[in-house]
Design brief:
The chain is mostly helical. About 50% of the residues lie in helices and about 5% in strands. A three-stranded mixed beta sheet has the order 3-4-5. Strands 1-2 form a two-stranded antiparallel ribbon.
Length: about 260
């Protein structure tokens, strides 16, 4: 073998070795900590820092990586609530005029995740509420959710998400950074805080005025008796018997930068 051929062979071996090492050191799908990513994204939003790096990571990941990285309902809920709340702040702080047509704002595909543009409504009703028809009051499932939704949605609905999702309005719950390993504790606190702030009980009339969220998503909460049980557990009404429910008007005034630590 002459020197030239020997050098070519050595070079060829080195190239193959480099390629092999590159594959072995590459980040496997699902190795991204998506819960941590969502927390950092929301924290940067709260601090007024640039969030483009987080948006790029979300846009360039894959459906398989998300599926692998978000396996439990706690992981899914913490991630998606953070992402939803972060994008509400990011988009509306730059373009508040979009809120003039709220239906279009929530229903148009405007958030790039795993190579697919999704709407706020898909995140809320499709993934977080397990493929509920947005106008179905929590009682009608969507017939044909797409693959993205089927792979990423929760296994079981949790009514407490309604006291964690912030849609940008004055009557929305404040924004907190949710963590999968503390989710029950945080949801318990956010639910208690929101209901105590928005519920008014009139003992003389035996009437309780509550947030319209209970009406709009009634299937998520159950029957009216179930709603009263929730209120009684929070110490907001003395009994579930012989008390009338009234739904308060919802204040849709845009109110961003409403934060809380849980």
């Amino acid at each position: 073998m002459n020197v030239y051929k020997f050098r070519v062979r050595i070079l060829f071996i080195l190239v193959l070795s480099t390629i092999a090492n590159g594959f072995s050191q590459s980040t496997p799908e699902g190795s991204i900590n998506f819960n941590e990513l969502s927390e950092k994204f929301l924290l940067a939003t709260k601090q007024g820092n640039d969030t483009q790096q987080f948006q790029d990571q979300l846009a360039n990941t894959t459906l398989k990586a998300l599926e692998n990285g978000l396996q439990s309902d706690h992981q899914k809920l913490a991630f998606w609530v953070n992402i939803y709340n972060a994008y509400i702040q990011v988009i509306l702080s730059k373009n508040p005029e979009l809120y003039d047509d709220r239906q279009a704002f929530f229903n148009e595909d405007r958030i790039m995740i795993a190579g697919e543009k999704v709407a706020f409504s898909k995140i809320e009703h499709g993934i977080i509420r397990k493929s509920q028809w947005p106008l179905g009051l929590g009682k009608i499932r969507k017939w044909f959710p797409n693959k993205f939704e089927r792979k990423l949605r929760v296994k079981k609905r949790d009514y407490r998400i309604h006291f964690a999702l912030n849609c940008g309005a004055k009557d929305c719950p404040p924004v907190a950074i949710y963590q999968a390993n503390r989710l029950d504790e945080q949801f318990k606190k956010s639910t208690s805080r929101y209901l105590k702030k928005t519920t008014v009980y009139d003992a003389n009339k035996k009437e309780v005025a509550i947030t319209s969220l209970f009406s709009w998503f009634r299937g998520d909460f159950g029957s009216k008796k179930d709603v009263k049980r929730i209120l009684k557990e929070q110490g907001l009404i003395p009994s579930i018997e012989d008390i009338d429910i009234q739904y308060k008007n919802y204040d849709w005034t845009l109110d961003l930068d409403n934060w809380i630590t849980l």
